[in-house]
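Dig into what follows:

_____
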Amino acid sequence: MKDADFEIRNEYEPIIKFLQEKYGGENKASSLTEIYADNEEYAPKIKAMGRKAKELFGTTLAQYLKQIGVIGNKARSAEEEELSEEEKKRRAEEEKRVEEERKAEEEFRRKAEEERKVEEEKKRKAEEEKRLEEERIRKAEEEKKAEEERRAEAERRAEQERLDREEKQKRYELEHSVWVRHCNKRRIEREEEYKRRLKDKREELEYELEVKRDNEVKAAMEEMIKYMRQLVDAEWTLESLGLFDFKEKKAQNASIAVAEAKIEEARREIKSAREAYKNDIPGIDVKMKLAEIQIRKSVEKDIALPEEPQRPDF
């Protein structure tokens, strides 16, 4: 086996050795963030390794670096501990003072708002009383004037009312006949719209099932293609290995087994999606039965009957 091939398959080994040499002693890193900051030139490589950590190490990159002694807790001096406690105490006192000031300010604002509302309510009541008084005076004047007009036109109005009753009756009969024709036309429109919406609803339900089936089949096909590629790569790699590459052969055989299982699983999912689609088709009739009443109500709301003419009240 060539050294170059070994390095390609173990591309992260050099960076792990570098980190062990740099932080393996007492000078351990406290976190991944510190490692990124201290090694900016390697940061992209380390982050790429982190994204594959589960696959490479079976855990997160931070946990793996802790396991191999790269990340650890740094001991703090007694002076740092003392300063930390004093800082905690100072921050707690500062937070308490700020909270007390905030509460006092909120109480002041609350009282000011209550006083403002009381003043506004007084002003509103005074304006309302003034408006009511003006309205009362205006109505009294209008009633007086109306009474004078009623007395002056009593006889003329009696005759006019008789004529008006005859005119209203004729107009009502004409409007009612027009209303009946319009109602019949609207009912026909309702029935046509009802049938159209039923058809649209059925097509919508059928389309939803088709989209669901197609999405599931597509997802399974993409999964199958993915593992077919993995299978081809693993088989090709297996054929290229030397006679004594037992460990690598074992890994590639395991990869082949996983890929074949995933391919078979994808085939089952495709078959299941298509069968589920066939089984769900009869359910559309049930959903349509439930939708008929709602569709009927929506059509009646959207295509309302004209308001019936009011019969003359005399």
Summary: The chain has ten helices and no strands. The radius of gyration is 43 Å.
